[in-house]
User: What shape does this take?
Amino acid sequence: MGSLELRNVTKVFGKTEIIKGIDLSVKDGEFVVFVGPSGCGKSTLLRMIAGLEDVTSGAVVLDGQDVTAVAPAKRGIAMVFQSYALYPHLTVRDNMGLALRQAGAPRSEIAQAVGRASAMLALDPYLERRPAELSGGQRQRVAIGRAIVRTPSLFLFDEPLSNLDAALRVATRIEIARLHRELGATMIYVTHDQVEAMTLADRIVVLRAGQVEQVGRPMELYNDPANTFVAGFIGSPRMNFLKGAALGESADTVGVRPEHLAISRQGNAIPGTVSHVEKLGGETLVYVRSEVHGLLTVRLFGEQDFSVDEAVQLTPEPPRSLRFDAAGRRLR
Amino acid sequence: MTARRPIRWHIAVFLAPAVLVYTAIMIVPLIGTLNLSLYRATETGPQFVGLGNFRTLFGDALWSDAFWNALGNNVWFFIIHMLVQNPIGILLAALLSSPRLRLAAFYRTAIFVPTVLSFVIVGFVWKLILSPLWGIAPSMLGAVGLKGLFAPWLGQEGSALTALALVSVWQFVGIPMMLIYAALLSIPDEVMEAAEMDGITGWSRFWKVQLPLILPSIGIISILTFVGNFNAFDLIYVAQGALAGPDFATDILGTFLYRTFFGFQLQIGDPNMGAAIATAMFLIILAGVCVYLFGIQTRLRRYQF
Assistant: This one.
């Protein structure tokens, strides 16, 4: 109870085509993350699934039923917004219970549902407070609680963590992963942060300019990207793109992850000079400027000593480099 | 030893312009009026009579009947505004804020235009429209077969005040509309979308989400209406003259004050009694504002989004 299918959906605002025909199917209980740069249409696509945005053509199918023309509340979908979007005049308890009250559920059932959600999210001490009296993290938990209370078959999250500070973001991310395991519901999550995408998703949908670039499990996308866009978007720091001709390769571009680039002080591989070093304790990032390839990133384990302007040699690990043609498509 | 803080003259300097202007045009005349109401003109000059003028105003049937009549009319004038103007203003704002409405900017301007018109124009135009002899109201009602409903509303004691109150509503409905419209626009889209996801749409969305969030604005509008209505004068004066006919049926505190203070036709002006009425009006409005400030506003919550 919670499978979703998008059949060639498009969205046109005026004359601009925001979503250019997307097909996607999401299995029951799956956690799917839409990721892409800003303006790629990921939020619009989510809002089309929610019913907040009309679908120009194509169909949204939930559990085998075409819901393209069904009102948002009737789709059995709950959504968590970026700005939390809590009702400022209602207490936490009423915020969570309003949808059920509107649907005419009996009091005891509402109380039970709110109690269950608040226990799950550790919101019990705050039930009588109003949103203004809560911290950002607590507000986000209330927004998630409001979604849980309705026991939807599909949860939608629209960049739910982007208003939280870094530490809280990690904690809430883990919380959402735990909720997904406990509830077993289907979840679709929009973010521009590829770390969130990698850590939460069963499958990631990478979007660019209203089109799906690639769909796959996080490690699939990481190890086996279909093109330079996905290769560059997934993984941090970004993948290095080397010029194939300079390496004696037939491919136009050769992609090498920063951890697959060996650095040494002698040899005759790719010469360059160190332009910046970032020491993070557990790892060291060395930025090397190469005359042929531009700025390259090398990721080293542990603490390493390199100084700026030092001359170094870089060697790609051949089996781990990915080859792309001039249009950015992967050569296999 | 602590060094003495220098006197911070700049505070006084920055406050001075506002304080001086406000004192000159508000405080001094107010005190002058209060003072004037404690004297009575005699042949030998002004004579202090304490609360004597108020004793006359409330004790002498000639004065007190007129006063209570004006106050009662004023209360009715206010009730009409609260029951007609403000609900219509809220309704118009709710319609204007609907994203599906086309030409919203045109309606907003059109509804607001009467507010910037002069009272003289509004009063005169409506007198003409409602005139049984050459007004267009009878023929317009006739055009839809309702000529039987027409009555000379401004000329009948029973309907004149209500008719004028409705003219005033027509003129000023744009103000509550604009204030509520602004309040509705300040509710974030995502909150409204969250309500949509929760199945709260249409009227229940208005009652359960929007109305609670615009209550502070409704409070402000109520107090503005109260002060405006109890200070009203112009429209009645233009439409019915200072005698506020027929037979004082449209007499409100403003016109009563005007007749008393300046005199009208056979009535000789009496600044001292006029000042006593003005003082009574001041106290009535002060009481109303205090009830609002301490009784109502403290209970209205402003929500941050």
